[in-house]
Specification:
heterodimer; A: mainly alpha; abc type-2 transporter like fold; 2 domains; five-stranded mixed beta sheet; 15 helices; 5 strands; elongated; B: alpha/beta; Rossmann fold; six-stranded mixed beta sheet; 21 helices; about 25% strand; globular
Chain lengths: ~375, ~575
């Protein structure tokens, strides 16, 4: 049993690694993806232009504009005489928003009265608009002037009604949003890329062997379907852990993202997650006959996995039944674990829940896949 | 064939001069010069990898030659448009059909590609559907047609543009004799109408029927001309020696060992011997009956004669205890009656369709059993149930006394399997392939080392140990596949069209080993569409519509269809007559 299993695993690994091109294709594209995705995700919050309609022309209004101009996020602050004049720029997407500083802005602030400014945002670019609202409201909060006219969710950025004693600290944190966002992206990408590799390798390998006719050659040997299935499940685990190590090094050393968690938990998470994904991959490959079908099948689950993981959109915003689906989505647990490991340095105990859930999912998918494989193969 | 060239010599349908085609460092065609006489069937003959497909694709204008010139129907073929495209019909291997489209959709698609107008289209469809007998299947998906019907549809699609030159790339591969014979009839009709047909094939039986052949080997033209002219070279040197039942293999071996013998092959209960030039006198009329030469006899001479010498595979065959000690009980059960493969009432249903219906037979130690039948007749289904690739819906199959459904793994340990396309792991080296199959069959370390070493030695694999299996020459792929299938010294060998597409020398080498293994008590089950190969069998089971309709030695089957009209029936005649008799 062990001799046969190890023979199959070795054969799988040789098939993946012997050809230099195949070897590179396992390493290079994921790294390129890591670089590209992490940079692409930060593009939105850089190079922002906000139109300013300064009806006040007082010292506080000037101060606000200087603070905005001092931020790395805002490259341009074109000035307009009226909202009507600035409207065209917003419509042509030359600016993401219009900041209106009312005529009594400085007077009110000098007199110690609460003052407010209006921020009009381009709702078509909701993501960038939301981030812009956060920046602007943070700066305004430092001035003690709340915003109005921004989309409601923009307020969650935390514009306070009055200047806080520790305003400086708050601003410093908010002034590093680029870094924050990449920090958020990187651990997520580690999970996403492990999903893709574990799923694809297993989904395609059986179909490939079917196309080449080698599958029959292995099926007529004394190797049992369970041994063959395990032989197909184990190599992606190895590949996923090697890749994860590579990501860990790049993300921490090159991008300086802190890794505050436990390495054992990290590898336990990678292995269980890869097993869960490989199980799904094997399930797909038991049902298909060609690599093309396997590829389409893998894609059909990749996208929902990614969308229902909290990677792109917050799980809290989803309807209850989709929220339930996210609890059986291995990627959702994986992303929480990765964020906990990298950013929060969450304790082992607090991550145990996700880890156990991941283990349950992995057990379900692999057992179901092996059972289906046995039924279809024999 | 029966079609004669016109009185005035017509210009050739195609002409190639010094044609060279290379792909990277590989040379597919190394300087071919030849002409296609018009309105004939020209056979493009050669084993896989000889350059047949490359030549056809060049003639179809799908590729440009590296060097040399070619002229098709008076002009140079070009990939886009031009006169060649309009007047050439091309049927690629596997017939070039869209399997998810219906018969009619496939025809419509090709009609659209040729921009046929509605009236022409109606008329051509009607003609072609009646010509191919596909009229009642227009709505069926091409993927659900039988091999023979796919082939006819492929031909219909190639014929839509009324081509003057028809290029058929291996139309006979994987097609049973019945469908092949029908295709010949259709192609003959076309030739009578003035069409030139280039028919590529690895089967010499097919080549023999062509008016003219181009014989390719390794990218070179070995011979061009009428097949009969080539056969003439060995006239007077071909003999048949009748032998007692069960003596054919031994006799063939001893004949081949003689210095005067160029080639010796088994034909049922006789041995066909080809003498070396000038040695015909050594074959006395009392024992040896002179027979008419065939293309294959001459071809083997052209290639240098059959390889001689004892089969090292059989000599190194382990005797005594089988590798799997758990099978010892099974081995004891076998000894009693000598039956190594037993199919009893094997039935397999797919939904309502009964693919195999109560098929039963037994194969004894040292026996070669052939499973023959048209495509879709249930031959493959039966074969796959016997080697454990398919669960029977009813009945039982056992190998070396072990029931395949009850102790699948243990039964599979006693069988070796070799499929038509040598399913080796192409990304693994020769050594890694051997290593993998040794481990997957659970060979113990010492046994494994010894078996792998002897396989490498006897098949001369040492210089290739670290090459990828996918890059081996065809002959070595075949050797490696046989080595991997026999590493564990199985009691039964299952061979699925084992020598399809290889040249006659490679086929002889292969059967030389298989024959020798039977002397060690190995039982062999083989499926084939190739009647030469069927002649090697001790017994043949003919499967049709899921049932076994005939069983017997090749000579018994021939005898059953002998009639005044068919005084010397071939095995192919027997195959067709038995099936037609059953259908009537």
């Amino acid at each position: 049993m062990l001799q046969r299993l190890s023979a199959i695993v070795r054969k799988e690994l040789i098939t993946m690694l012997r050809d230099p091109r195949a070897r590179l294709s396992l390493i290079i594209p994921p790294i390129i993806q890591l670089f590209v995705f992490s940079s692409a995700a930060t593009m939105e919050v850089k190079n922002i232009a906000v139109a300013v309609v300064d009806l006040d022309r007082g010292p506080y209004a000037l101060d606000v504009q200087q603070r905005l101009g001092g931020s790395r996020s805002f490259t341009r602050l074109p000035r307009y005489a009226s909202v009507a004049a600035a409207r065209g720029a917003l419509e042509r997407e030359q600016v993401i928003g219009i900041l209106v500083l009312p005529s009594a802005f400085s007077a009110d602030l000098s007199a110690g009265r609460p003052a407010s400014a209006q921020l009009l945002l381009d709702g078509r670019r909701s993501n960038a608009a939301q981030i812009t609202a956060q920046y602007v409201s943070t700066i305004m909060a430092a001035e003690g002037a709340p915003l109005s006219g921004a989309p409601p969710q923009a307020r969650t950025g935390g514009a306070g009604p009055a200047p806080l004693p520790n305003a400086e600290v708050v601003i410093d944190n908010w002034f590093n949003p680029n870094l924050e966002y990449q920090w958020f992206m990187m651990p997520n990408l580690v999970g996403m890329l492990s999903l893709a590799v574990a799923l694809m390798i297993t989904a395609l390998s059986v179909a490939r062997e079917r196309e080449l006719g080698t599958f029959d050659q292995t099926l007529v040997s004394p190797a049992t379907p369970i041994e063959i299935a395990l032989g197909k499940l184990l190599p992606p685990l190895l590949v996923a852990s090697v890749q994860a190590t590579l990501y860990l090094l790049i993300v921490t050393l090159l991008y300086g993202v802190p890794f505050r968690g436990n390495l054992l938990v990290f590898y336990a998470a990678i292995l269980t997650f890869a097993a869960a994904c490989a199980g799904v991959g094997l399930f797909i490959s038991s049902l298909v006959h060609t690599q093309q079908q396997a590829f389409l099948g893998a894609f059909a689950v990749l996208l929902p996995f990614a969308l229902l993981s909290g990677f792109a959109t917050p799980v809290e915003n989803m309807p209850w039944w989709l929220q339930f689906v996210t609890t059986i989505n291995p990627l959702a647990h994986m992303l929480r674990l990765m964020q906990g490991l990298f950013l929060k340095g969450a304790s082992v105990a607090s991550m145990a829940q996700d880890l156990v859930k991941l283990l349950e999912i992995a057990l379900c998918t692999t057992v179901a896949a092996v059972l289906l494989f046995r039924r279809k193969a024999a | 064939m029966s079609v004669h060239a016109p009185a005035t010599p017509a210009p050739p349908a195609a002409r190639v001069l010094g044609l060279v085609k290379t792909f990277g460092t590989a040379t597919a065609l190394a300087g071919i010069s030849a002409a296609l006489p018009p309105a004939r069937i020209i056979g493009l003959v050669g084993p896989d990898g000889a350059g047949k497909t490359t030549l056809i694709r060049l003639l179809a204008g799908l590729m440009q030659p590296t060097a040399g010139t070619l002229e098709v129907l008076g002009s140079t073929p070009r990939a886009e448009g031009g006169i060649t495209q309009a007047q050439t019909g091309y049927m690629p291997q596997r017939f070039g059909l869209y399997e998810d489209l219906s018969v009619l959709d496939n025809l419509t698609l090709y009609a659209n590609l040729r921009a046929l107008d509605a009236a022409t289209r109606r008329q051509r469809f009607a003609q072609l559907l009646s010509f191919t007998d596909l009229g009642s299947f227009t709505e069926r998906l091409a993927g659900n047609l039988s091999g023979g019907m796919k082939q006819k549809l492929g031909l219909a699609c190639a014929l839509l543009g009324r081509p003057r030159l028809l290029l058929l790339d291996e139309p006979g591969v994987g097609v049973d004799p019945l469908s092949r014979r029908e295709l010949w009839r259709m192609v003959n009709d076309l030739v009578a109408g003035g069409v030139t047909v280039l028919w590529s094939t690895a089967y010499l039986e097919e080549a023999e029927r062509c008016a003219h052949i181009w014989l390719l080997d390794g990218g070179r033209l070995l011979y061009e001309g009428a097949p009969a002219r080539l056969s003439e070279r060995v006239r007077g040197r071909v003999f048949r020696r009748r032998v007692a039942a069960g003596q054919a293999r031994q006799t063939a071996e001893s004949e081949l060992a003689r210095e005067a013998v160029l080639d010796a092959v088994i034909q049922g209960a006789s041995v066909r011997v080809v003498a070396k030039p000038g040695a015909a006198g050594e074959f006395h009329a009392g024992v040896y009956e002179a027979v008419a030469p065939r293309l294959e006899d001459a071809y083997v001479e052209l290639l240098g004669g059959a390889r001689k010498g004892e089969s090292l595979l059989a000599r190194g065959w382990p005797t005594g205890a089988p590798a799997d000690t758990a099978a010892a009980g099974g081995a004891a059960a076998v000894k009693a009656d000598g039956v190594l493969v037993r199919a009893a009432g094997l039935t397999r249903r797919f939904g309502d369709f009964v693919a195999a219906d109560n098929v039963g037979f037994e194969v004894h130690a040292g026996e070669i059993y052939g499973l023959l039948g048209p495509n879709g007749a249930g031959k493959s289904t039966t074969f796959r149930m016997l080697c454990g690739l398919l669960m029977p819906s009813g009945g039982a199959a056992s190998v070396a006394g072990v029931n395949l459904s009850r102790a699948a793994s243990r039964a599979r340990a006693r069988l070796g399997y070799m499929a038509q396309k040598f399913s080796l792991y192409g990304d693994l080296s020769v050594a890694q392939n051997l290593d993998y199959f040794a481990d997957i069959y659970g060979l113990q370390r010492a046994v494994k080392r010894e078996r792998v070493r002897s396989m490498v030695e006897m098949f001369e694999l040492a210089p290739l140990l670290h090459s990828n299996a996918s890059l081996l020459p065809l002959g070595f792929k075949q050797r490696l596949a046989l080595a991997c299938a026999t590493l564990h010294a199985p009691a039964v060998l299952f061979l699925d069209e084992p020598t399809s597409g290889v040249d006659p020398l490679m086929r002889r080498e292969f059967w030389h080993h298989i024959n020798a293994l039977t002397t060690r008590g190995v039982a062999v089950v083989v499926t084939t569409h190739f009647m030469e190969e069927a002649e090697y069998c001790d017994r043949i089971g003919l499967i049709w519509r899921g049932r076994k309709i005939a069983e017997g030695t090749p000579d018994e089957l021939k005898e059953r269809v002998r009639s005044p009209a068919l005084a010397e029936p071939t095995l192919e005649d027997a195959f067709i007559a038995l099936i037609q008799g059953e259908a009537a």
